[in-house]
Fold this protein.
Amino acid sequence: MTWFLFASPLKRSLFIITVLGILGLPSHLTFAQSSNSNQQNRMTVRSDRQEANSETGVITATGNVEIKYPVQQLDATARQAQYYQNDRRLVLTGNVHVQQGENSIRAEEVTYFVEQGRFVATPKQNQQVESTYVIPEGEANTQNSQPQPNL
């Protein structure tokens, strides 16, 4: 395994991706395209660096993180993303922008609870979270209607 220390970052990343596949990385989170025909539950993460800890079940991506989760129409960018396999929770930090369909959210930190489809956003100190929601026309004129956005 000494070659691993001297291998290029690309070769190390490919090795980690292969190991994750062998260890049974959940199908809802993958870091590379595979020949698997079931693309519906695939989340693709691109970043400058990625690492996985099989003991803690935490996968960390840092630097220019881009996430695509087509089944939820979700695109996100951040400085760092950490996926907690046991909790099925994705924590995005650092200049986070999440786009889901026509809705969007900007914050310093956004936690996405995959099972619930729920987002919790936290701003930088002395700032605010910014969200944009598109309300369907049928709901805009209803007095008792409560918007229920996914973000």
Observations:
- The radius of gyration is 18 Å.
- The first strand starts at residue 44 and ends at 46.
